[in-house]
Amino acid sequence: SQTIHQWPATLVQPVGSPLSLECTVEGTSNPNLYWYRQAAGRGLQLLFYSVGIGQISSEVPQNLSASRPQDRQFILSSKKLLLSDSGFYLCAYLHRGFTDTQYFGPGTRLTVL
Amino acid sequence: DAKTTQPNSMESNEEEPVHLPCNHSTISGTDYIHWYRQLPSQGPEYVIHGLTSNVNNRMASLAIAEDRKSSTLILHRATLRDAAVYYCILSDAIRDDKIIFGKGTRLHILP
Residue B91 belongs to what H/E stretch? Predict the structure, then answer.
């Protein structure tokens, strides 16, 4: 069975500091991977998605970047965090099959002070 | 460019049925209709999906209009644990690799 991991679970960072969030998936090969952000009280915003190693599509221009160094690893980064980067960051993968279902990780709650 | 339209919020009493509507007037013939829900402080989870016929599973039922331009997620007996944001998504977004969530419907359950 497939599982998806994210860490850390919570993070408090000062403005201007760097960021690295990691997501890994087990039990599947060549999955589509996704990073979403959810600001407090808001909907899910798609940030990046990847259909393979080294392939990143960006949905929203901002100070964040994503990388996929391995098939089942997806990393979200920033060189300098802004206050507006605070939110709940979710990684997801797409299970292609009869249902074509997305599965989400437990999320990282980021607070930028 | 949202492809589905849902009410912002709804309320229901505990142990009563809940009908969550979704309009998708531009749905194409091969689009599947997917529903997800997001419990507080968690990521979304799959609820149900369908193409043309009504569908039932252990979580909910999905009723799809004959013209497929709308659908309704039915929770047969709501509990407090069903309080969540419910998202209706068309599958052409999924097959295009990019999955866009709308604002969904925030369901409040009253004890």
Answer: helix B91-95
